[in-house]
Amino acid sequence: MPEKTPTSTHLRPIRIGTRGSKLALAQANWVKGQLESRWPGPVELVVIKTAGDQLKDVPLALVGGKGLFVKEIEQALRGVQVDLGVHSLKDLPSALPPELCLGAVPAREDWRDAFISNKYQRLAEIPPGGRVGTGSLRRRVQLLHLRPDLEVVPLRGNVDTRLRKMAEMGLDALILAAAGLNRLGLAHLYRGCLPEEEMLPAVGQGALGLEVRRDDGELLEFLSFLDDPATRAATAAERAFLGRLEGGCVVPVAGLGRIDGHRLTFEALIGDLDGKIILRDCLVGPPAEAETLGRTLAETLLARGGQKILDQLFGPPI
After folding, report:
1. pLDDT per residue over 136-162, tens digit each?
2. In the chain, is it the N or the C terminus that has fewer CB atoms within a 10 Å radius of its CB?
3. Is 216 an active-site residue?
């Protein structure tokens, strides 16, 4: 595809809305660098504090994790205080406000979960009764399914905070997203990554979502150079799956789409909170039907018992 070039003659600035965490800034600065190499006008970062940043010590599942890290950025987009929001795609709700859209989904980083420990090389080495820290219901469910003899300790905060808490609380290990550690230059901290058979990732994990106003045709056209079709299709299946379940951080689900040539393989699961039940399946189809694959697999898992799990968490649908 030929590279798009801006048509504006007044050198409008591009204002990038971002959270202020180290990881968010690393991601936003990467996007900023990409834009600056092609955009003739200035590119600026605008740091925005989100509700998720203010509730640092509260488990996301208790405060309705869906949209906690994006709402204020979306408000700034709609109010034209910023032109582009840079998100970790896993934080972005599956349904966007009607006036906003995903302008680009860049090529995905590592989607896996990383194993961090000062004592053990692998999860299997942790003895019964060991304690593993994570702030994710998805990880909790899969950890307890794999190792019901472990204690999963709720843990939130940035990487430095979690490493400090691991030492202070005497935890045996942490599970964190490999992509975030890689983007921060901290890949040396983890022993390795958990295989997909043990730990399917969060929807959108490892990918970025560049959110823009739907009516900003100039910016939408320009951003096409950052869009990776394979990542967009894979994550479209994942987000359609999550959208059918109407879930976010408060639902113990996981999903991973992968493109191999002209084939999209989408695997997903729903689990109960104690990890005793894991409903997992896979579908294969053309990338052009990514959203259909995601919704179809959601319906399959709901029919196999997933709806009962969700009803136990939230009550039956009205």
Report:
1. 999 999 999 999 999 999 998 888 899
2. C
3. no
